[in-house]
Amino acid sequence: MHDNTHTNGMLHLNNTGTSIEEQSGGIDPRKLFDKLMRNWYWFLVCMIAGVLVAWLYLRYSTASFKVTAKILVQDDKKGGNVPGQEILQQLEMFSSKSNVDNEVEILKSRSLMEKVVKDMQLHVSYFIGGHVKKSEQFEKLPFVFHWQFLKDTLNEANYVLKPLNEEKFILTRENLSKEARWNDTLHLPEGIVRIDRNRLFPLGQKEYLIQVLSVDNAVANYQKLLNVNIPNKQVSTIDLDFVTTIPEKGEKVLNKLIDSYLHASVDDKNRIVDSTIAFIDSRLGLVSEELTGVEKNIQQFKEVNEVADLGEQAKLLVSSTSDFIKQLTDQQVRYSVVESLEQYMKDEKNNKRIVPSSLIVQDPTFVALVGKYNTLQLERERQLISSTESNPFIKVIDEQLAGLRKDLQNNLSSLKQGIKVSIDELQRNSNVLTQKIRQVPGKERIFLDYSRQQTVKQELYLFLLKKREESAISKSSNIAIASIIDGAKSEALPFKPKRSMIYILGLIVGLAIPALWLYLRDLLNIRIQNKQDITTGTPVAILAEIGHSDEKALIVTGKDARSPISEQFRALRTNMQFVLSGVDQKVILLTSSMSGEGKSFVSTNLASVLAVSGKKVVLMEMDLRKPKISENLGITNATGFSTYAIGKVSYENLIKPSGIHENFWIITSGPIPPNPAELLLMEQTEKLFIELRKHFDYIIIDSAPIGLVTDAQLLGRVADATLYIVRQNFTLKQQLQLTKDLYIQKKLPKLNIVVNDVQAGGSYGYGYGYGYGYGYGITEEPKGVLSKIKRTLINK
User: Fold this and answer.
1) Would you say the C-alpha torsion 432, 434, 437, 439 has a positive or negative sign?
2) pLDDT at 745 over 50
3) What is the reported pLDDT for 130?
């Protein structure tokens, strides 16, 4: 069955030699649509394959979930105060001021994540092997690895645990295999581990994969999964998100991180308070002993001198000197405290300890230095958790601490000197009054000295006791520097891969692959595929288009033939009337670029269709080098044109009946001559054509390919029209340049192109098969989707 059509009429050219289609330029949407529809099954198959690949990718890829949390940090600059801060502000002790940016860095710190990794044993991961990938497990396992010791230099170790029964298991890796009981302690190359059996979960798997990393590597890996950021600069909140393949694991890790951060901030505050309380307790002991000694002296003085009440005797004097005594007492208290702190700072045993900051609140410079000194001490202790004292960073901190310690000592010395000057000044004023009371009995004066010492010691004791109580209260009210707004919670759907995006991408790739293939096929194809390849490559008009024939017979244009291809030859016969417009124009020359383009097929069937119309036709087999027509028709080729040209055969014996139609005659090529071109130039050849014009209505010359030899050009002098055969998917595009040169230089008469072997429904045009069911006995193409699909698959 043939599914063919044809174009009745020639493609017209304008005066510049270019086709109307070429002039229009651009992409023809209809042709593009037809090309896509002709290859619809490729798009369907590739789209199904794209969706299938997307499904397989989603099926076997590891989904990643995002776990988020939000905390509020105390930041005086942004108003982020935590509950309970008012108590500390009223006590004016242990300032907990912070900055959100600093807290972000703390949350990102390695030391904080290291604590989480160690507490949760995150450096050990558990997997269950599958057919394609292994799946990580968390907590819900029938056993747990408890590492009692792990080498720091470990990179990665992978073990396979095979449970044997409820009592034993086998642990293997490269060059290592150990059989042990549950809850046993094993000595492995990476360290010492105890494998405990968790009987809440059954031993359901045959094998478990255990991946062991060093703590440092595990910390680095988990830090990459953590993201800490501030939403905007107007708030003091911090957003935390953690990427994980197991939502439950991510939630617990993030909650543990936040909990460790909050505990660390409280611990830092409590350490400062504990250091202050310890210092106050030591001073209280000394002051209490001194106060007791003074009180004993007063008691002994009264007992020895039998003095009951000297108040009334010294009332007037005390009233006059009370102001000086009070001032002197205050300065002496400050002097004692400063002296105690100075001794504390000079003691090398206290170089690594936190300096109490709540005793001297009157001097802001000293308080600021103490705060900075204590902050550095805490940072040094935090760094020593994961470093040694030889670390360059620790040495830098030590140098800073030494400088601050010197500044504190200088500040205390200066402060002490100032207080000493004040005391001396008050003492001088007091001496003036002392001179005035020398008349007072010695007993009264001695008693007054004892009372003054008692007052100083008592004020100092009460001061220290008050500060100790305030410190104890502040410790009980210490809270974390931040509060949790939203606890860690995983998103319901994985954020990667996005299922909808993967499926859309699969569809897009499924569409893009065949589209790209079609584009590259057209771009890289060097052979003629469609009409545009011809019209853009040559100004020569297309006279007719001959469809593809699956018949093995050479002749497809018999008298009763009603096939589509026979109708195409009839259309060619009709179009030839426009080419051979003159009465004496009878000779039609057929040539092509190379062998195999169908010259013999077209010439034979053209002669046949002309003979059927009642015209007397002679077909000349003038491809003297490679004749085919006589062989295909079963006609002897012992004599022919080559023997006629040299005078061995007469004109009457040269012309032979074709055996196809009574009006169809043939002149065979004869034996292959050594000099075909010279035979065509002989005078005998021209005489032959003169005779043929007298006896035949049409003379069809099947010549050699003009792209290989010059035979066709030599015959052009006797021809009235030339048909240049072009075969779809066979003729090279570059060979069309030859027709352009022949047309422009007019080397051949009335040059036209006949396109041969046009595939049904192919890429040449709109396909053949319509318009031939009316009066010709040809069945119309079946309609319907299934029929079209079946027809398309059969044709392809």
Assistant:
1) negative
2) yes
3) 65
Q: CA nearest 577: which of 544, 554, 602?
A: 544
pLDDT of res. 780: 38
pLDDT digit string, tens, across residues 414-465: 888 888 888 888 888 777 767 656 655 666 667 777 778 878 888 888 888 8
- Cα 370 from Cα 360, distance rounded (Å): 10
Under 8 Å between Cβ of 369 and 400: no
Residue 434 tokens, joined: 């002392």
Asked if 600 and 608 count as a contact pair (C-beta separation under 8 A), the reply is: no
Residue 477, SS3 per DSSP: coil
Q: Is the dihedral of CA 493, 498, 501, 506 positive or negative?
A: negative
pLDDT attached to residue 723: 94
| Percent of the residues in the chain that have a pLDDT greater than 90, as a whole number | 7
Q: How far apart (Å, rounded) are the C-alpha atoms in residues 226 and 232?
A: 19
pTM for the whole thing? 0.50
Q: How far is CA 732 from CA 528, 534, 592, 593, in A?
A: 6, 10, 11, 9
Task: Tally the residues of the chain.
Answer: 796
Q: Measured between alpha carbons, how far is 457 from 332 in angstroms, rounded to an integer?
A: 10
CATH architecture observed for domain 567-752:
3-Layer(aba) Sandwich (3.40)
d(CA 406, CA 365): 14
Least confident interval from 318-332, 439-453, 519-533, 547-561: 439-453
Start-to-end CA span in the chain (Å): 14
**Cα–Cα distance for residue pair 359/357, rounded to 1 Å:** 6
| Residue 439 identity (one-letter amino acid) | Q
Place of tokens 């369907």: 44
How far, in Å, CA of 722 to CA of 738, rounded?
A: 14
Phi then psi for 329, rounded to 5 degrees? -65, -45
The structural domains of the chain, with segments of one domain joined by +, span: 20-61+510-524, 65-90+99-261, 265-486, 567-752
